[in-house]
Design goal:
Main location: nucleus
Radius of gyration: 33 Å
InterPro entries: HATC_C_dom, RNaseH-like_sf, ZnF_BED_domain_contain
Oligomer: single chain
Mean pLDDT: 85
Low-confidence stretches: 39-44, 271-278
GO cellular component, one term: nucleus
Structural class: alpha/beta
Largest sheet: 5 strands, mixed
GO molecular function: protein dimerization activity; zinc ion binding
Keywords: Metal-binding, Nucleus, Zinc, Zinc-finger
Strand content: 5-15%
Number of strands: 7
Shape: globular
Distance between the termini: 32 Å
Length: about 650
């Protein structure tokens, strides 16, 4: 027994020693082998810590619970208690209520610190926002905030993961968001909010005064590729069927064995090999290596496996196809070796593998598709980062992709103009059922049904996909050369020449920057004037005034900035601006606003990843308020010296 009830540990006596049970009772419950309490004896033999030290150790315990997302009831674990008893007998394990109190105190201590940090350091902030549903079907609004501090470091805070009442309408989202911003006192500092393309979220933000909505680039690229790849849907499903075949443990092991055989023979390639001494299967492997000079054995030591093709994320399909191409020769060899086997199991698998194997023209098309989609994958990965500036690179990246896909003939342009995206489906979002395949179970909830037993028609397929991708890019980003869209890139010293657009388009962006510069200059003047007014009564005409050097003519910050040499793309624009802030006091304030924006809402996704690890199917009764506190402390602990008040 303890303060939380029975510890739950039981021992069965099957004629063996009862030493473990006696040790458990003595160390955890202060009960001797006669069943008597011995608490006074423990006090004499074990020196307990001071109250201050006990609190410090409990704070360390709470840090572990928060950062590793441990359940609060872990403090009831008999094994954990025994571990602590062995490591530090003087430490008294707190109960669950004490842990909750410490977490409440940590939140109450940390939250004001971060609000003060935002007030003193952030001149402009941008947010990412998304909705998440827990295992208990409760809706939450995750809000993260980014800003550039006085040292020109990009900072990211988690403002909250707030319970939002159902239904999740634009009105309820806006109501919750405005309440959070008012609590943090940053409503007037918010410039941009990055979200996915959900209509309710988008409508909520567009109803906010003075705030710009930015669609998540990663999410939009997912839509682009999903619609652009529709012409290849048969090929995609055939490739997925082949991948799924090798996701089974038996087939995966066979593929690994083939790679191992090739690796072993490749290691001995410089030695004289007696083919007559090889088994039939190994002889076939040897002949393959001998006759195929393009066979790549450099990675066989890794024993590659297929990568799962998750239909809801296009980049998982891209990675799966890349890996499948590397395994093509091994799969062909596996078919050859299985065809020599006589056992029924091998014969059955060989027949199935031959049936679902891609044709040579399909392999060539997949190779071309991987090449076409590689820029999309690079853009998704780079623009989804959270340690560097992404917003300023977004537009030139998208323009580069569009230029690679641009139609080259009048017929191509006609094909593009006839694509109707309102009726075009998304290959990666829809549930698809495979028909006329004995080993594929029909999906009763599928929206579409496909027959994929015959090879895909690859004639002009790559060309159609390129044109459809181009049309999709132009559909979702209708005007990437507008001055307000180019302005963020103009403030990035790596690409400030805007070499990816025309001279006129660059000039229009510079004109817009001049307008914003004048507005910021007026705000700075009004602020400095109010300070000067307080000191006017103390001023007088000094007799030394005539000896002072007259102030130099004010420089045009924009002209001076644009005349400077670009920096390398690998350089950090924030480091550059930190060194140039004194030379461009007004322009640097504008740069801080734009360089802090995230092009993707992946910060919210990372927040929900932690949230899902805390609120699991077996741990879903935590109150939304307490859940919010734990997530807040876990995500923001790096911004303070300690989440606990100093003792």
């Amino acid at each position: 027994m303890n303060n939380d009830g029975p510890c739950g540990v039981s021992y069965q006596n099957s004629g063996n020693s009862t030493g473990n049970a006696i040790y458990h009772l003595r160390t955890l419950h202060n009960i001797d082998k006669n069943g008597k309490m011995t608490e006074h004896q423990e006090t004499n033999t074990i020196k307990t810590h001071t109250e201050k030290r006990q609190k410090q150790l409990r704070q360390f315990l709470v840090n572990w619970i928060i950062n590793d997302l441990q359940p609060i009831h872990v403090v009831k674990s008999a094994d954990l208690k025994m571990l602590f008893k062995e490591l530090d007998p003087g430490f008294i394990m707190p109960c669950q209520k004490s842990i909750r109190n410490i977490i409440d105190d940590a939140f109450d201590y940390t939250s004001p610190q971060l609000k003060t940090l935002m007030k003193n350091e952030a001149t402009s902030v941008s947010l990412t926002l998304d909705l998440w549903t827990s295992k208990s079907r409760q809706g939450y609004l995750g809000i993260t905030c980014t800003f550039i501090n006085s040292q020109w470091k990009l900072k990211e805070l988690t403002l909250t993961i707030e319970y939002i009442r159902y239904p999740h309408t634009a009105e309820h989202i806006l109501e919750t968001l405005e309440s959070v911003l008012e609590e943090w006192e940053i409503r007037d500092k918010v410039y941009t909010i990055t979200t996915d393309n959900g209509s309710n979220v988008k409508k909520a933000i567009n109803n906010m005064r003075g705030v710009k909505w930015l669609g998540c680039v990663a999410h939009t690229l997912h839509l682009v590729v999903g619609k652009g790849m529709i012409p290849a849907q048969v090929l995609i499903m055939r490739a997925k069927r082949l991948i799924d075949f090798f996701m089974r443990s038996k087939q995966s092991e066979r593929l690994e064995i083939i790679q191992k055989k090739i690796s072993d023979i490749a290691k001995n390639s410089n030695k004289e090999i007696n083919i007559d001494g090889l088994e039939e299967e190994d002889e076939e492997v040897y002949n393959l290596l001998k006759n195929n000079s393009e066979f790549d054995v450099s990675q066989t030591s890794d024993y590659l496996n297929v990568i799962a093709d998750v239909t809801t994320r296009w980049n998982s399909s891209f990675l799966a196809w890349q890996r499948l191409l590397k395994l093509k020769d091994y799969i062909n060899l596996l078919i050859s070796t299985l065809s020599t086997k006589l056992d029924p199991d091998s014969k059955k698998d060989c027949k199935r593998l031959k049936q679902i194997m891609l044709q040579e023209q399909e392999w060539d098309t997949i190779k071309d598709l991987v090449s076409i989609l590689k820029p999309f994958a690079e853009a998704t990965n780079y623009l989804g980062g959270n340690k560097y500036c992404t917003y300023t690179i977004m537009v030139p990246t998208l323009i580069k992709i569009i230029n690679r896909l641009k139609p080259s003939t009048a017929d191509d342009e006609k094909y593009v103009s006839e694509i109707n995206f309102k009726n075009l489906e998304n290959i990666f979002d829809d549930q698809i059922s495979i028909e006329n395949d004995e080993e594929e179970k029909p999906n009763p909830t599928a929206i579409r049904r496909l027959k994929i037993n015959d090879p895909a028609n690859t004639k002009d397929l790559v060309k159609k996909i390129k044109l459809t991708l181009y049309a999709a890019m132009k559909h979702y980003w209708k005007n990437l050369i507008a001055p307000e869209v180019l302005l963020p890139s103009l403030l990035d010293p790596r690409i400030k020449d805007l070499s990816f657009v025309s001279v006129k388009e660059r000039f229009d962006a510079e004109e817009l920057l001049n307008d914003e510069y004048d507005q910021e200059k007026l705000k700075s003047l009004s602020s400095s004037t109010s300070i000067q007014d307080d000191d006017e009564s103390q001023e007088y005409d000094s007799i030394f005034a005539s000896f002072k050097t007259p102030a130099s003519k004010e420089i045009n910050e924009i002209t001076e900035y644009l005349s400077l040499k670009k920096i390398n793309f690998e350089s950090d624009p924030l480091v550059w601006w930190h060194g140039q802030e004194e030379n461009f006091p007004i322009l640097s304030k504008i740069a801080k606003k734009y360089l802090a924006v995230y092009a993707c809402s992946t910060s919210s996704e990372r927040l929900f990843s932690d949230a899902g690890n805390l609120l699991t199917a077996k741990r879903n009764r935590m109150s939304p308020k307490f859940f919010k506190k734990i997530m807040f402390l876990k995500r923001n602990g790096i911004h303070v010296d300690s989440i606990h008040k100093q003792l």
